[in-house]
Amino acid sequence: MASPDLTQELTCPICLEIFTHPVSLECGHHFCSSCISQSWQKVPGDVSCPKCRQVFTQRNVRPARTLGNVVEKIREVKVTQPQEEFYCQEHEEKLKLFCEDEHKAICLVCGMSRAHKMHSVIPIKEAAQIYKNKLETSLETLQKQMDLSLHSKREREDGIFHMKAEVDRLRNEINSEFEKMHKFLFEKEQLMKAELERKSNKIFEDMENNLTKTMDEISSLEVAIRDLKSRLEVQLAPEFLKDIQDLLMRSQMEFHKPGTVSTQLPVDIAGEPFKYIKVWREMRAVISPVPASLTLDLETASDGLIISQDLTIVRFGNEEPDRPDHPKRFDVYLNVLSSQSFTSGRHYWEVGLGDKTDWIVGVCRESVNRKGDITQSPENGFWVIAWTEDCKSLKILDVISQLEMKPRKLGIYLDYEGGQVSFYDSEDMSHLYTFTDTFTEKLYPIFNPCNNDSDPLTLLSG
Q1: Predicted TM-score of the model (pTM)
Q2: Fewest CB within 10 angstroms: 126, 200, 312, 322, which?
């Protein structure tokens, strides 16, 4: 006589009946030969075990003869032994039906009663298979949500790792610069470090909060998946269907990806060279580094521009210079490039604006269009800002008009590998704007004094 545990071991996980012609998969689980064949019939390519989900590239099954012999013995015993069943407490009848309206197993008498007369009633084994399919679908959905959550977790962890690396790089840079200035700069060094730590800690806090939210989502998904897997292992239909609707509701949860947190340090921290410049100016008696010295390239200057003999001053003029046509020359817009170009490294230069009412300044790619109408935008290789009434039509960034006071001197900082072009009011080193992009070719400083006034743009010498 078979024990209940033995009967459960001899039950096919697919049809929930005693095995018929049992076969064994490579993972060691057993199924009826016809059940596993039907389960794999509509699956193209690789298949998997319905119980443990192990994937197989070959559809190899082996007859489980020993198990088959045991099953036959059990069948012989079951002919003479009463079967263990679940019974209706009210009518003491076997639970053979399932009420879809009330989501519970009932007996045949219940099914014919007035209480269930208008309800949708189906055979209990059919209901078990229906809800098993639903739970398996929910399990697949939750597995996908788990994959999304794990991917999000990796993104958060990678973001924290890269942020820490960037903070370490900046911390080392700060140390290197302040070692050159020794005791005189000790107090300022500590101040800048504290500012870096304060602002980076705030970013880390936001990133850690995001990671914590993701971990909470993962925990909830793990609980739901564990509950579904546990229920799917139940073989007896009434026990399997107990509180099935509540389980289905709990299985519908979705992974909510936390909002994006910036992984970039603020420009006033990451753009540390400008803090050094400000400090250097405060201690000129000790050290006096200066911005780079640039000169203008006459071959690129538009015909409407007047260039000084030392190639450091440009203005608009009515007198027409006698300049031959040249492939490098701008022929419509009043642009002129510097003779110096950059393909790597960090560079800083300053331009005197004075009281000019119109100007355009920045950098551009070597390959920009220099003939005819030009849309001066980053998409076309121009990273420039302006003070001009026409800048909107030219798609040039206008950030100066929003200031209470126009700068009289402009600082331009290029970090080629870092992909940044930043603009500063060089008198107090206040940040105006930063373009972020990827540079792949030679870059030139570009200057346009515009034609609304004759005041010059001046390249300030280091």
Answers
A1: 0.47
A2: 322
* Cα(19)–Cα(40) distance, integer angstroms: 18
List C-alpha distances in Å: 294 to 19, 142, 289, 400, 461.
88, 61, 15, 23, 7
State the residue for tokens 């300030």.
Answer: 460
Can you tell me the distance from the alpha carbon of 37 to that of 42, in angstroms, rounded to the nearest whole number? 9
Amino acid at 262: S
Q: Across-strand partners of 24?
A: 30, 62
In one letter, which amino acid is 208?
A: E
Residue 454, token pair as written in the block: 């004759």
H-state helical runs in 55-123:
65-80, 108-112
| DSSP symbol at 273 | H
Q: Can you spell out the DSSP letters for 6-33?
A: HHHHTB-TTT-SB-SSEEE-TTS-EEEH
> 152 in helix, strand or coil?
helix
pLDDT along the chain (462 residues), means of 10: 59 86 89 88 84 86 86 72 68 90 92 89 92 90 90 90 88 78 74 82 84 87 88 86 84 75 64 64 54 89 90 85 80 91 91 90 94 86 84 65 80 91 88 91 95 87 66
